[in-house]
Design brief:
The complex is a heterodimer of chains A (639) and B (218). With 639 residues, chain A is of the alpha+beta class. Chain A has 24 helices and 20 strands. In chain A, the strands form six sheets. A four-stranded antiparallel sheet of chain A has the order 1-8-3-6. In chain A, strands 2-7-4-5 form a four-stranded antiparallel sheet, with no helix packed on it. In chain A, strands 17-16-15-18 form a four-stranded mixed sheet, with helices on both faces. The longest helix of chain A is centred in the middle third of the chain and has 26 residues. Chain B has a single domain, classed as Nucleotidyltransferase, domain 5 (2-Layer Sandwich), CATH 3.30.420. In chain B, 36% of the residues lie in helices and 17% in strands. Chain B contains eight helices and seven strands. In chain B, strands 1, 2, 3, 4, 5, 6 and 7 form a seven-stranded mixed sheet that branches. The radius of gyration of chain B is 18 Å and the shape is globular. The relative contact order of chain B is 0.17. The chains are: A alpha+beta (639), B alpha/beta (218). Strand 1 of chain A pairs antiparallel with strand 3 of chain B. Chain B: This is DNA polymerase-3 subunit epsilon.
Chain lengths: 639, 218
């Protein structure tokens, strides 16, 4: 029976292939039998080897990834309007991949028994589906094969820009540096140094017979196993792993993971029996995968559509993953990722400003609060932000406030679209309490500092980690100065803040075992955020505030500054700085692995070494908390 | 009042069938439960004076809505309130097929069975339905009820500076959860928006400690 919902479904699906080819009657008939499926983030839609469903799926809202769980790789990424799960439609066998909701998603389940006869009647539909199925991508037209069957003019260049790793061909170095297996190791090493390369191919009769890399030199020669006068043959890895020219990045990655090697040799026909054409190293893969931050920044700045920023942020995650894998120092990773995130936010503000009917009546500043303000936000989390605008005459205040509230609503909505969840405590500039003039903020800050109850301390602790995301810096400096002046007048505030910093639950119990959550969804998990990271963050805040240091909101940078200011505690502060970075890296790794915030950790999944590493940071937490207790005489206000 | 109350034996067959559903055991597993998300459009806000114009509902089983299984009916009207026409766009003797109040109730009871009813500001919709039942000499609905307006507040973190409002409109929920407001102010359209909001609220509440069906039912 035709109804409102089926009309709504038809309205959506008619825009996407293969449904755009169907006639209206079939379309409505189909829509009446659709299933609307809601999937929480990370929920499985089907697993490998699961019996075929009687539906295939179209993403209505959100995104779905098709994964190979054994190699833990994402094979395909399905966005709004993409179809997946076509296997039962074409082959009567179980699923070969796992489908998982990458975000909170709404899917349309298209009934196969209704759809099949329609597809049979319409050759174009069948062709599309076969293509989708065979190429492992659900929309063969939108990518490089676009226009092969029938060109869709101007099919949003949105997709062209985004490099989906799966389809991108890996570019390899074509300048081959080779030697003979009979060359001495010394000569080969000299050649590698001269050409600035990390590997060299051993060639015999024009064919690749082996490869030596820096690692081989380290492990087999410097260790003394082989003299440098020995031949390359004695240390080379053989046979070499060969692949044909048209290798996608994902394939290259999988090949490297499978054989646990870092170099692939590209040959004419992909076997060792033809001439080598080039070498593809792990580094090459990394470069093509993560694009490059400068390119991304440019791409974000050029964007006029908020939806497109969301797509670009995907590349940021790829970049992050690559950096962590390469073990780049976290301080540096955080800098790059924060810079990219800041650029995204700035662009959202720019786009929102352009949507306003008039330019802002006065200067303003958009503040990032919490983890984002501290530049410690590597994974997507909630948005915490605030807006401050220049003081205006009292009679203009209501209409100025209204203007900035409207702007804030647009910005927070835009941030939500690109992947920042709304703050459940509503600490966002769209809340009238967080969108104020400079004077109003000063009054509020004075109140918090002068009346430090638990709530005021909590508010201050979120607010005091602010940084400028967009707009006028002088407004921010003005607020910072006000905070320091007020804190000087009410030194007791620091004691309360210090006390707040000691409230986090202890990470370990009496026997030095991890303390895990007792109930709720995360029962038996370790809460890394509140038991390990927060104490360090809170301690850094109160200490830096007591030194009236302005403009540093990042926790490890705060500790580094403290180490400079208090040479006698140098060691402890540097240890804190290190621990913060280590914990954040840990959290980020966990988060990427499980595609969540990384806050809760399943201890059983950790190696002994990882557990030891975690426990080492706990020792530092205890020491810094003792320092705070003594310095701020916290016990005085408790007694 | 007892004088007018029909004894159980006098109740029509469809009510008895409806009532018997509640003798069946229900699943303890939250994900196995069936929810009927509904919305009613009415001639106004008075339980006694006003009447139901239409009922729209969708059924959620295992986080899935089947388009085939949606419920949409329009009721014949003897009373007509000019003011509410603009909001709902339902005209008396419009082109929709309308049925009598009693057969609407019969169809609804057959649809809802012993599911858990979900509605936004459920008190109003339930009040309208129960009053309609009473007019037709039938007892009140027996289903457990969840109000999305109430459970949404549970997803918010209370802090003294940022008080959650006491009342959130369906528009605000749609906005918060980025749900399209297409077909807003039709019973089925609103029921669908409420259903999506319900699913999103539940997924957020599941993360909280002590999540249970009990915590949701008013």
């Amino acid at each position: 029976m035709k109804n409102l919902i089926s009309e709504r479904v038809a309205d959506f699906i008619k825009n996407f292939p293969p449904f755009n080819i169907l006639d209206t009657k079939s379309l409505y008939l189909l829509a009446e039998q659709v299933l609307i499926v809601y999937k929480e983030k990370n929920k499985i839609i089907f697993t490998v080897d699961e019996n075929p469903h009687s539906y295939f799926y179209l993403v209505h809202k959100g995104a779905v990834t098709l994964n190979n769980p054994t190699t833990n790789t994402i094979i395909d990424y399905c966005d709004e309007g993409d179809v997946f799960g076509l296997r039962p439609l074409i082959a009567n066998e179980n699923y070969k991949l796992e489908a998982r909701a990458h975000e909170e998603s709404i899917l349309y389940g298209i009934p196969i028994d209704v759809f099949r006869p329609m597809a049979k009647q319409n050759e174009e539909v069948s062709v599309f589906l076969m293509e989708s199925f065979a190429s492992n991508t659900r929309n063969p037209y939108s990518k490089n094969q676009k226009g092969q069957l029938y060109g869709i003019e101007g099919e949003d260049d949105l997709k062209k820009e985004i490099k989906i790793p799966d389809l991108q061909l890996a570019s390899y170095s074509k300048k081959l540096i080779t030697c003979s297996p009979r060359t001495t190791i010394q000569k080969a090493a000299e050649l590698m140094t001269e050409k600035h390369i990390g590997s060299i191919l051993a060639i015999s009769k024009g064919l690749a017979v082996g490869i030596i890399t820096d690692k081989d030199l380290r492990n087999k020669v410097i260790s003394g196993k082989q003299p440098i006068t020995a031949t390359v043959k004695s240390i080379m890895t053989t046979p070499v792993i060969t692949y044909p020219k048209k290798l996608t990045i994902t394939q290259a990655q999988m090949a490297m993971m499978k054989s646990n090697i870092s170099h692939l040799v590209i040959t004419e026909d992909g076997t060792t029996n033809t001439k080598p054409l080039g070498i593809l190293s792990k580094h090459d893969v990394m470069v093509s995968l993560g694009d490059n931050p400068a390119v991304l920044v440019k791409a974000i700045k050029r964007t006029q559509k908020i939806k497109k920023i969301k797509q670009l942020r995907k590349s940021v995650t790829v970049l992050l993953n690559g950096y962590l894998e390469q073990n780049i120092p976290l301080g540096l990773i955080a800098k790059i990722i924060s810079e990219l995130n800041d650029t995204c936010i700035k662009q959202v503000v720019e786009i929102s400003l352009a949507k306003m009917k008039s330019p802002p009546p006065v200067k303003f500043a958009w503040l990032a609060l919490g983890s984002q303000g501290r530049s410690e936000q590597l994974l997507h989390t909630d948005q915490d932000n605030a807006l401050v605008f220049e003081d205006v005459p009292e009679e203009d205040l209501p209409k100025t406030t209204t203007y900035f509230l409207n702007l804030s609503k647009k910005i927070t909505k835009g941030l939500n679209t690109i992947g920042y969840e709304y703050c459940p405590a509503d600490m966002m500039a769209s809340n009238p309490k967080w969108c104020l003039s400079l004077q109003e903020w000063k009054n509020k800050l004075s109140y918090w500092i002068g009346n430090p109850g638990p709530n005021e301390v909590l508010m201050s602790s979120i607010f005091f980690d602010y940084s400028l995301a967009f707009g006028e810096r002088s407004l921010l400096d003005n607020m910072s100065e006000h905070i320091f002046r007020t804190v000087e007048k009410y030194p007791i505030f620091l004691v309360h803040l210090a006390n707040g910093a000691l409230q986090s639950p202890s990470p370990t119990g009496f026997f030095r075992q991890f303390v895990v959550e007792q109930d709720g969804q995360h029962k038996d998990f370790f809460d890394l955020k509140s038991r390990a990271l927060r104490p360090l963050i809170d301690a850094a805040r109160v200490l830096i505030l007591s030194h009236s240091v302005k403009g540093i909101s990042n926790t490890w940078e705060r500790y580094e500054k403290l180490a400079e200011l208090e040479p006698n505690n140098n060691e402890l502060y540097l240890a804190c700085s290190y621990a913060t970075k280590a914990l954040l890296k840990f959290r980020t790794r966990q988060g990427l692995l499980h595609h969540d915030s990384g806050r809760f950790i399943e201890l059983e999944q950790l190696t002994k070494q990882e557990k030891m590493k975690l426990k080492r940071t706990f020792k530092v937490i205890k020491e810094i908390q003792e320092l705070i207790t003594l310095r701020f005489k916290v016990t005085n206000i408790l007694g | 009042m007892g004088l007018f109350k029909k004894s159980n034996t006098n109740l029509p067959e469809f009510w008895k069938i409806y009532e018997s559903q509640f003798k069946k055991p229900t699943s303890k597993n939250f994900d196995e439960l069936t929810f009927v998300v509904l919305d009613t459009e009415t001639t106004g806000f008075s339980f006694d004076e006003d009447r139901i114009l239409s009922i729209g509902a969708v059924k959620i089983k295992k986080e899935t809505i089947s388009v085939q299984e949606v419920f949409e009916i329009y009721l014949e009207q003897e009373k007509f309130n000019k003011d509410s026409v603009n909001v709902h766009g339902l005209l008396k003797h419009g082109r929709r097929v309308c049925i009598s109040e009693i057969s609407a109730l019969e169809k609804f009871l057959d649809y809802v069975e012993n599911s858990i009813i979900v509605a936004h500001h459920a008190g109003f919709d339930l009040g309208m339905l129960n009053n309609a039942l009473r007019r037709n000499g039938l007892p009140k609905l027996k289903n457990a009820v969840i109000d999305t307006g109430v459970i949404y507040r549970k997803t918010l973190i209370k802090s003294y500076l940022v008080q959650p409002k006491t009342n959130y409109t369906l528009d605000e929920l749609a906005e918060k959860f980025s749900i399209s407001k297409k077909d807003r102010h039709t019973a089925l359209g609103d029921a669908y928006i409420t259903a999506l909001a319900f699913l999103k609220i539940i997924s957020r509440l599941k993360e909280k400690k002590n999540f249970s069906l009990k915590m949701l039912i008013n």
